[in-house]
Fold:
Amino acid sequence: MDDRTEPDEETRAADEADTDHAADRPPTDEEAAVAETHAADDDPGRRADVAAHEKEMMEIGAHAKGEGAID
Structure:
C-alpha cells in the first residue's frame, strides 16, 4: 500500500510563506558578551586553527572504512 500523500494548497501556502525568524527576546548582557568573544572570524590564528582542523577531518574522512565505502 502506498502511504504517500499529496500536500493540499493550504500546506503548500504555509511552506512558501515568508516567515519572520526573529528572536523572542533580546540577548542578555552575558549572552552578548559571549557572542562578542566568539566573533573572532578576523583573527588569523583562529582561522589557521579552523583550517588545520578541517584538513585533519578531511584526511580522516578520506580513509574511513565502513558502510557505504567503495573499495
